[in-house]
Amino acid sequence: xxxxxxxxxxxxxxxxxxxxxxxxxxxxxxxxxxxxxxxxxxxxxxxxxxxxxxxxxxxxxxxxxxxxxxxxxxxxxxxxxxxxxxxxxxxxxxxxxxxxxxxxxxxxxxxxxxxxxxxxxxxxxxxxxxxxxxxxxxxxxxxxxxxxxxxxxxxxxxxxx
Length: 161
Ligand code: NI
Hints:
CATH topology: Peptide Deformylase
Mean pLDDT: 95
Distance between the termini: 25 Å
Strand order of the largest sheet: 1-2-3-6-7
Number of helices: 2
Radius of gyration: 15 Å
Bound molecules: nickel (II) ion
CATH superfamily: Peptide deformylase
Structural class: alpha+beta
Low-confidence stretches: none
Helix content: 10-25%
CATH class: Alpha Beta
């Protein structure tokens, strides 16, 4: 496993659309492991492959200690329901936070790290995280959809966890 370099604001790759994974093989599983390690190293709760410079439709999310880490390949949003106004940040935008509107509920289909089809029905925080990470795969970042006037830039000394 290896820590990968996180691409940050200003890097044009963050605006690019990621491509579908055609074969889920050991190379993909290795990338997913690295993404998880990188996410944990930087105290993130989610990461898309584009954020480590790989334009493949892969995301990982780790919100709760007691739940398994979400590893999702080629995710497709099947359904959304409702809205929630939430504050969020992103490992590619260090020290920046803003409010955005995310779906309250979301149903997503994709593949797991073994290439098996899976479906995730999520609400609240997980719905927010899935929406945020899937946006990355389409070259969209939260700063582009923030509610005007809600951007907060914190200095590293009073950084939020
Ligand atoms: Ni992000």
